[in-house]
Amino acid sequence: MSRPDPTRSTALLIGTATHSQQALEDLPAVRANVTEMARLVTTGPVDLVAVERCTQLLDLAHPGEAGVTIAERCGEAEDLLLVYYAGHGLLDDNGELFLALSGTNPRPDWLKYTAIPFSWIRDAMRDSPARTRVLILDCCFAGRALNTMSAADVENGLADRSEIQGTFTLTATSDNVAAIAPVGAEHTAFTGELLSLLRHGPPVRDGHPDGEDLTLSAAYRHLAVTLPSQGLPRPRQRNTDLAADLVLRPAPAAAAAPVAEDQPANEPPVATPAVGLPTSAEARPVIDTLSRPQRLFHPLHRELLRAHWRRLAQAAGVEAVFLVLLLGWFISRETVPDQVGWVDGDLMLTFLELGAAAIVTALAATAAGDVRDGFPGVARIKWGLAIATWGVVVVILLVTVIIWVLTPVFGDDMIIAVPFIACLLAWFAWWLGGRRVNMWWRTPVAVATTVGVLLYATRGPAEEGTLWWQLLESHSLGLLWTVTGILVIGFLVVTQLEDVVTGHFALARRPLVVSLSKQGIGIQTRTHNRFIAWHHLDRIFVAGNILVIAFKRDYPEVEKPREFTYSTQLGGFPVADLRHFPHSRAEILHALSHFAGATLHGVTPPSRDEDWLPTRPDGKPALRYSDRWSTQ
């Protein structure tokens, strides 16, 4: 017998409770099936899967919404893969099984376009690297899945080749029997009995040995006896290898150990520690209040702003390097000999020039990564530094070439005005760009043009050498690069410092308290205090890091919270960013599952690329914490 590792296991729970086609009857109990199954498999004593690795798909409209998720979740599982479906099972003209969705057209020739082909789930589970795979189907004609899952694995030797222990398939009915959903019952017949078994363990009348773990095979034996005795269809199962030995619910620890024969009667008995019972099986405390910390530099705030602090430290480090270069510049100037030569201090100044140019070029190369990470402002500052420094060289080259070309035509007297015309044109473009379009690069271009023209115009007499030789002798370009770097990176440091400080203030000055109870959810902000009953909500779900509520269709518009902004992208009213509470994601999801019950469905894990970024009202990443989503 084996117990899976919850952190390496995955559960995919799919259910369809409502249907747009009148030919398919709504199954309100399915929603309770999925949410209660999610609560049980992610909490003790069952605790098969970590909360963040349990995905619920409820009332999807189109199979395209499920296909990618099914493949991704099955591919993520390493230890246990649990796939559950509750809803209508339908057959096409070829007898193939399809799983109904909210938008499914039950006509046999339309099923392949509007329902989930069972072959999708079959193939995804076969391709999964999970050691143990469990499929539970609570739908009509579910028994047809038995011949397409486990038997195929035995025939093609997949289990032997990939070290997969096996597959256990449990269905509510055989291949030609309809599943039962009692009218008015909280759960469907099959799933309700299974949930009761997971919640309380097998009753003594089953003949289950006291103190033993509940395995998949023992669960099936219980269901195969209990359901037919109630006049319900007999479930079916198919097992390969050792999958049936998976422990669903560990046996409870003995309340007290027996008194040893040699133990004195007046001494309390010594408790025998439970053997083999994982600590994760212990019931976790349920949080009923989620509150944002209000301290300015709370550890949670520092963690949320970790990326911003890191970028600030990097910018400060680069600024320190430029200051060291400038200090070395002044020290080296004192050591330059009277005669010009590439020795001693003059050689040191050359290395300082190369160092400044290398830093500017390296910063420009990292700007593309800043754009990809969601910091275009930082990228523009780095690109602006490169334009302002290397642009001077480009301007001098262009002016030199233009004058060399035009001198034979207009003469020396007229050509002297070319640099100044170029300068005027650059600043006119800067002014026009600010009024017409938002060209962020106009300022560094104008600065580079002006400085380049000034360097060209202030060159010495021809007998003192060419312009380039004069610049090399005086090291003017190197000093320009260093000073420009200090100014621009200093501006970047100030910008990022302002972002960090405003981020801390934004997090600390926007209070939010979310209270959970069996009756509903309370949301308290600085200006509003609202309580919403669960029966008024169609659903409460987590999209990435955002907690969202969606009201029932008949809920009056005037009663909906005006203090929240409706998000079309999320399909509801965002309430909170889970990361802004001093509790783990698993603890918060556990609390929501405990209190919200059937109202909770749909937990989408955050994207790896967006998990560390703050969020906006539409659920997309924000670039600054002062612009992030908040409840006022």
From TrEMBL:
Task: Region Disordered: list its residue ranges.
Answer: 255-276, 604-632
- Biased composition range(s): Basic and acidic residues: 607-632
Keywords of the record, alphabetical order, are: Membrane, Transmembrane, Transmembrane helix
Q: Does the keyword Electron transport apply?
A: no
Q: Where are the transmembrane segments?
A: 312-331, 351-371, 383-407, 413-432, 439-458, 478-497
Which residues belong to any copy of the Peptidase C14 caspase domain?
A: 75-200
Q: Does the keyword Flavoprotein apply?
A: no
GO annotation (BP), single = proteolysis
Q: Which InterPro entries match?
A: Caspase-like_dom_sf (IPR029030), Pept_C14_caspase (IPR011600)
Q: Name one Pfam family in it.
A: Peptidase_C14
Q: Which domain of life is it from?
A: Bacteria
The protein's GO terms of the molecular function aspect are: cysteine-type endopeptidase activity
Q: What is this protein called?
A: Peptidase C14 caspase domain-containing protein
